[in-house]
Specification:
Blueprint lengths: L6 H14 L5 E8 L4 E8 L14 H13 L3 E3 L9 H10 L3 E9 L2 E10 L7 H27 L5 H26 L3 E5 L5 E4 L1 H7 L3 H4 L4 H4 L3 H17 L3 E9 L3 E13 L5 E10 L1 H24 L2 E5 L6 E5 L14 H5 L5 H14 L3 E8 L5 E12 L5 E10 L1 H24 L1 E6 L6 E3 L1 H7 L9 H5 L7 H14 L3 E8 L5 E13 L2 E11 L1 H53 L5 H28 L9 E4 H11 L1 H6 L3 E4 L4 E4 L1 H17 L7 E9 L4 E8 L31 H11 L4 E5 L5 E8 L7
Parallel strand pairs: 22-24
Antiparallel strand pairs: 1-2, 1-5, 3-4, 4-5, 6-7, 6-10, 8-9, 9-10, 11-12, 11-15, 13-14, 14-15, 16-17, 16-20, 18-19, 19-20, 21-23, 24-25, 25-27, 26-27
InterPro entries: GAF (IPR003018), GAF-like_dom_sf (IPR029016), HATPase_C_sf (IPR036890), HATPase_dom (IPR003594), His_kinase_dom (IPR005467), HisK_dim/P_dom (IPR003661), HisK_dim/P_sf (IPR036097), PAC (IPR001610)
Catalytic activity: ATP + protein L-histidine = ADP + protein N-phospho-L-histidine
Organism: Natronoglomus mannanivorans
């Protein structure tokens, strides 16, 4: 609803109304002259400069499309005028006026063509089918208005200055009213008006039908009173306030219920109605049902999204080429290659590696000649300037006559694939060399045919020619007769159940030599069925011989160790009796003749007694050391808290003599020899008290789990004199003592005995210490399942 007086004013106001919206950036109307069949510029809006006087050369694209519209009498659309124009000057015109697509709408009423309306937009999707249909309907409405205005102008007569003006105004008002009534009643759009109190003062038939109300029932009522929801009414009231304040139209989109059609989507415009003084006296509104257009746009958007998703998922670039590939129209590289939106003829040098250009051109020529698909792998320059690989595939687009109009192609980034192929080639080469170095060969069995496939190294191992690859049954005959049943059983089980195997077996070479191999087989299953069967064969003849020699040596060493332990036990046991006799007689001499001896004699006697005592202690220690493995008790669950309590009780006298403090955390259960573990704890605690220095001993025992809970680390920490870290390994050697007898007593066997006890329990023992900083002896024992801790 555009109030105007003259036809020319109406055309201009129509253009301005279009550009006032956000949908169209340019509007232009040309009048059609039936005698000359020309379209003459009549009104425009939105152009950076007035286009009405430009020549046909300056606006050739407009004249050409307008002429096509006149001839076809239907909406003509020029899409993608910037990215893909039919002519280069059309792109220049579009860029100059800031739009991408334009539509030319015929203004036809009762088969008479009044002119052409051009609308332009910068929207990426251009003009869709639903919008074209709406524009065609609008073109008929504008043409009807032109016809009515022309008729009114022809009926005017000149009757003097005053009478003429009165007659023109009176006739114009009546004609204008008829025009408004006709347009408003015939349009499917909702046409209405508000006063400044938000009350309806006008509503056309389409709006009354949507409400399901009569004109009398709705006039003078507010939005709420008519039946709008509160949020909807408040929104429009805010918009009316804004139009009154700014005197500018406002446009929006909203969904609400139609009385008959249900939920619909509407596009609406509120425009100010100004009085003679330029103040807003009312608000005029038009609303158009855009539900179908929205559905179409949504379907188009989803279709485009699906297409884009497909393209993005299947390739890293999309391009369009001219029929002869002389020009690239468009390339969307998606970060793989540099994008190009402008047609370019130097694409070959810009994108394709020089060494591959000849191959690419040859493949293109063949595709053009045969009208077949172009596809090949070649190197390209990537977006970051580096060289990559692509698999490019393009198909020809044909017209109705079967001629190629363009090529659509997709380029996939296969750079990583090519890198992996090169790595695989290097790996295969390395594998072949490694096979020879490690004496390992590969094999495979065809599950269906039972045919056997070997790598070259297997042929070398078997000493047969590469053309003598036998079937599975004959291959099994090459194994030593004593090992054939186990090999056959392993292979049958693998083919039947899908279980892998790893075994050792003997083979007979073609020359009759017997060699040992390690045979591994790994079947691959799908849904429980074996689909492939592969493995490896490694020559382990030399290793097997070494292992046998080593086993013989171990057996001899064990026998030797057993004899040495027996000897040590016998020697230490047999020395006990003569040493006891020596000690006894020395004490008799000391008791009976001490007074008869001078000072030197008494000192010599003390040396002899002390030496005998130390000799007895060493023999006792040696006896304990030799009996760790042979005379120990069986391993069982042991509560280390109980062990600590027993040891602590046994050391009470020494603890009291040294004013020692010995503490322990809650200790775990382990698996071990109770007696030997008591000996272990007693030796370590006695050692910590003995080497405490000048201060009273402070000793602490702690425990923590290790090796995923399979073992415990026990630590005995003191604050004594400490040990030089460089001497840490010596303390566990038999008869090794870091201090003289004058400084500290000791046989040099206690820590060696601890190490042997820990070793019998499958653990390790070590020392962490610094001189003057105390020492921590730590050892590992197996965890028991008797309790969590």
């Amino acid at each position: 609803m555009i109030p105007t007086i003259t036809e020319q004013e109406m055309r201009q106001r129509v253009c301005e109304q279009f550009t006032a919206s956000s949908a169209y950036s340019v509007a232009w109307i040309g009048c059609y002259n039936s005698e000359t069949e020309a379209v003459i510029p009549a009104a425009s809006a939105g152009f950076s400069k007035n286009p009405l006087g430009e020549s046909t050369t300056e606006a050739s694209f407009r004249q050409e499309l307008a002429t096509e519209t006149v001839q076809r009498v239907e909406v003509t659309v020029g899409q993608n005028l910037v990215a893909d124009p039919p002519r280069e000057e059309w792109r220049e015109q579009a860029l100059e006026h800031g739009y991408r697509s334009c539509a030319f709408v015929p203004l036809v009423s009762e088969e008479r063509l009044y002119g052409v309306l051009q609308l332009a937009t910068d929207r990426p999707h251009g003009f869709g089918p639903a919008e074209r249909e709406s524009l065609a309907e609008l073109g008929r409405t504008i043409a009807y208005a032109c016809e009515d205005a022309e008729s009114a102008a022809n009926d005017d007569t000149v009757q003097g200055d005053g009478q003429t003006e009165l007659a023109r105004v009176t006739a114009g008002t009546a004609q204008e009213r008829r025009l408004y009534e006709t347009i408003i009643s015939s349009t499917p759009d909702l046409v209405y008006a508000f006063d400044l109190d938000y009350r309806f003062v006008f509503a056309n038939d389409a709006l009354l039908e949507m409400w399901g109300q009569t004109y009398d029932e709705s006039m003078g009522k507010t939005l709420l009173e008519v039946g709008y929801e509160p949020w909807h009414a408040e929104m429009h009231e805010r918009e009316i306030d804004e139009v009154v304040e700014t005197k500018e139209p406002i446009r929006g989109e909203v969904a609400f219920d139609h009385a008959k059609l249900g939920r619909r989507i509407y596009d609406y415009i509120f425009a100010p109605v100004l009085d003679d003084e330029g103040e807003v006296e009312a608000i005029a509104g038009t609303t158009r049902d855009i539900t179908e257009r929205k559905k179409t746009e949504e379907a188009l958007q989803k279709s485009e999204e699906r297409f884009r998703t497909l393209v993005n998922a299947s390739s890293d670039g999309v391009y369009r080429m001219s029929p002869d590939w002389s020009e690239m129209h468009h390339l969307e590289g998606q970060g793989f290659m540099a994008d190009t939106n402008d047609p370019t003829s130097d694409w070959l040098d810009k994108y394709v590696h020089p060494d591959d250009q000849a191959r690419v051109v040859e493949a293109i020529d063949e595709a053009i000649r045969t009208e077949s698909t172009f596809e090949m792998e070649h190197r390209v320059e990537q977006a970051d300037g580096s060289v990559g690989w692509t698999f490019s595939r393009a198909v020809a687009m044909l017209n109705e006559d079967g001629d190629i109009v363009e090529w659509i192609g997709m380029a996939s980034d296969i750079t990583e694939q090519k890198d992996r192929e090169r790595e695989l080639e290097r790996a295969l080469d390395l594998l072949e060399k490694t096979e020879r170095i490690a004496d390992v060969g590969g094999w495979a069995v065809d599950v269906e045919t039972q045919d056997v496939f070997w790598t070259d190294h297997v042929f070398e191992l078997l000493e047969i020619d590469t053309d003598q690859e036998p079937p599975l049954e004959e291959a099994l005959d090459m194994y030593h007769e004593a090992d054939q049943p186990s090999v056959e059983e392993a292979i049958e089980n693998a083919l039947g159940s899908g279980e892998s195997f790893d075994m050792e077996a003997r083979i007979r070479t073609d020359r009759g030599d017997v060699r040992w191999i390690r045979l591994q087989g790994v079947p691959e299953t799908v849904d429980g069925e074996v689909v492939s069967f592969r493995g490896a064969a490694q020559d382990i003849t030399e290793r097997t011989e070494r292992e046998r020699r080593l086993e013989d040596l171990v057996d001899k060493l064990e026998e030797s160790n057993e004899r040495l332990e027996q000897f040590a036990y016998a020697a230490s046991h047999d020395l006990q009796e003569p040493l006891r006799m020596v000690s006894s007689y020395l004490r008799l001499v000391e008791d009976r003749y001490a007074d008869a001896l001078d000072e030197d004699g008494q000192e010599f006697l003390e040396f002899a007694v002390d030496g005998a005592d130390r000799m007895r202690a060493m023999i006792d220690g040696l006896l304990e050391y030799s009996r760790v493995d042979t005379r120990g008790e069986s391993l069982e669950a042991v509560d280390l808290d109980d062990v600590f309590e027993d040891v602590h009780q046994d050391l009470q006298v020494k603890i009291a003599e040294h004013d020692a403090q010995i503490s322990a955390e809650e200790l775990p259960h382990t698996v071990g020899d109770p007696g030997q573990l008591r000996q272990l704890f007693q030796n370590l605690l006695d050692n910590a008290i003995e080497y405490s220095g000048e201060e009273p001993p402070r000793v602490h025992i702690s425990a923590e789990q290790a090796n995923d809970g399979d073992e415990w680390v026990l630590s005995v920490t003191d604050e004594g004199i400490g040990i030089d870290p460089e001497q840490a390994d010596r303390v566990f050697e038999v008869f090794q003592s870091l201090h003289s007898q004058d400084e500290y007593d000791g046989t040099g066997i206690g820590l060696a005995l601890c190490e042997r006890i820990v070793d019998r329990h499958g653990g390790d023992i070590w020392l962490e210490s610094e001189l003057g900083e105390g020492a921590t002896f730590s050892f590992t024992l197996p965890a028991s399942n008797d309790r969590e801790t």
